[in-house]
Specification:
single chain; about 525 residues; 5-stranded mixed β-sheet; 5-stranded antiparallel β-sheet; about 35% helix; about 20% strand; globular
Length: about 525
């Protein structure tokens, strides 16, 4: 019986030691959150380590994450980091029960790792970005050292000969409760203060009234939106528009303090513009479809919106920039975001007459924070990773030989014109429509070239022309439909498109890496 009692006590102390490690990790994160409020939210350890993990993750793994988790990929990453930290905390707690100083030192080591990740980020402001992780680690190590001390300290009554393995249960419970309460308070306060940091940005957005564009978008043709249930809306609502980026914390930039610098090779007059400077210029309004290079065949990362902004080519010309075709020394425009992201765009494409712009509005409102407020860049006809810089703050003119931006360093293509693609929106895969006339419908896109034809094939039958909705512009997607005389049984529906250059969408399946997916989209249905 004595042996069982001792074993049970040892097991209980081991469990409480693991709990101590978990509480120390919680304390470290809470203190770091509070300190990050005095530095900047992006310097917090979870964000810093998550950003560093994203930077070092191989492109195929990132592509897999986007494909499987979609816009929840960042949440999954953050939860994974927290789960890892929790597991490490449990282990360090058990280690500290026997090696008190070693376990506490382990917490400090992870603080150093977090600080190194924060300082190494592209948007780092210097060594101060490491302070949240370091100070948090000191707090976490102190909590672990204190709690383990309560587990290993004997009560006065137990110091007599034959007292056994008594330990300060009451002291431990009081210390653990106090640590949890103080840590929780620090975390809540830090999160509240970090939330307030964005209030000025939110206030500046709320005060913006977008001027009427000098060059408004033409009315959307009446026949551009098909009256077919299940087909995508021609104009994608802002809240439904896809988001793919690497920002774990969405930047919140005050429009009143925002600045954009234009400089580099061939820039005769380096320029810095404010948000108000852009609003005071001639604004254009255009319907433009954007596509992410991570979009699989038939995937959701494509959307169409009405954008308002300033012609980027005009700003470049005023700065003295010439495209390579006219003797300009720079063939690449590198756009930098406030979060450190870099995108490289062919200068020739920006200045060839297409509606490349610095956008300030989307669907009649100022940009939302997740879509790049206060200003983002977009260039029709190019995948987003080489054209659609959000939260832009710097434009440098350089060459493709001299500089590789973020995604090119990770083996994506330097130049990435959008491929001709089409998608079946309805019927959905594995649907069970009734026999008779079934409307097959979807969208097709070939930005800056336009869609000329869409064809449907049922099983292995001949290609048949689909009915095209009215075209808005060559920079927007185009809806299509086909009335299918469905017969009972299983069927495979396949779609392909032809753009206005005569290029037929290729059957060859390719991955999204390095320059976008290709292939025909098919769905399998069973007709009842």
């Amino acid at each position: 019986m004595v042996g069982v009692r001792i074993s049970g006590t040892t097991l209980a102390r081991g469990g409480l030691a693991a709990l101590s490690g978990l509480l120390s990790g919680f304390a470290a994160l809470a203190v770091a959150e509070l300190v990050s409020a005095a530095v900047r939210p992006e310097a917090g350890p979870v964000t810093a380590v998550g950003g560093a993990a994203i930077d070092r993750t191989p492109a195929p793994v990132k592509d897999w994450a986007i494909r499987n988790f979609g816009e929840d990929d960042k949440l999954v990453l953050q939860l994974g980091i927290l789960a890892t930290l929790a597991a490490l905390g449990l282990v360090l707690g058990v280690v500290a029960l026997r090696y008190r100083r070693t376990g506490s030192a382990g917490v400090l080591i992870f603080g150093v790792v977090g600080a190194a990740a924060a300082v190494s980020r592209p948007d780092s402001t210097g060594f101060v970005d490491g302070l949240p992780s370091l100070v948090g680690a000191v707090g976490g190590a102190a909590v672990l050292y204190l709690l383990i001390g309560r587990l290993t300290a004997r009560r006065r009554a137990d110091t007599a000969p034959g007292a056994g393995n008594g330990w300060d249960r009451r002291g431990f419970l009081l210390a653990a409760s106090a640590a949890a309460a103080v840590s929780g308070g620090a975390g809540v306060l830090g999160r509240t203060l970090n939330g307030r940091r964005g209030q000025d940005a939110a206030a500046s957005r709320a005060q913006i009234v977008l001027p009427p564009p000098a060059s408004p978008a033409p009315p959307i043709p009446a026949g551009a939106q098909l009256r077919v249930a299940g087909v995508s809306s021609f104009t994608t609502p802002s809240k439904s528009f896809y988001r793919v980026d690497t920002a774990l914390v969405v930047p919140k930039v005050d429009a009143t303090s925002w600045r954009l610098r234009i400089h580099g090779k061939g820039v005769k007059r380096p320029t810095t513009v404010t948000f108000q400077d852009l609003l005071d210029r001639e604004l254009i309004e255009r319907d433009i479809t954007l596509t992410c290079v991570s979009n699989e065949v038939g995937g959701p990362y494509v959307g169409n919106a009405r954008w308002i902004g300033v012609r980027l080519a005009d700003l470049l010309r005023e700065a003295g920039v010439k495209p390579p075709s006219r003797g300009g020394p720079a063939d690449q425009l590198v756009a930098r975001s406030v979060d450190g992201m870099t995108l490289g765009t062919p200068v020739e494409d920006v200045m060839d007459g297409r509606d490349a712009m610095l956008a300030v509005g989307m669907n009649g409102e100022p940009l939302s924070f997740v879509h790049g407020f206060p200003v983002r860049m977009l260039v029709p006809g190019l995948y987003g990773y080489v054209s659609a810089c959000k939260w832009i703050e710097d434009i440098e003119l350089t060459t493709f030989d001299d500089y590789d931006p973020y995604w090119v360093k990770r083996k994506w293509a330097r130049k990435a014109p959008i491929k001709t693609q089409s998608r079946i929106d309805t019927p959905k895969p594995f649907a069970r429509p009734r026999a008779g006339t079934v409307m097959v419908a979807g969208v097709a896109w070939a930005q800056h070239r336009g869609i000329d034809k869409v064809e449907i094939r049922i099983d292995d039958g001949p290609w048949r022309p689909a009915d095209l909705a009215a075209q808005d512009t060559v920079d927007t997607w185009r809806q299509w439909s086909y009335p299918w005389k469905a017969t009972p049984g299983g069927h495979t529906l396949t779609v392909r498109a032809t753009d206005r250059t005569g290029q037929v969408q290729t059957e060859k399946r390719t991955r999204t890496i390095p320059d976008g997916a290709s292939g025909w989209h098919s769905v399998v249905v069973t007709v009842d």
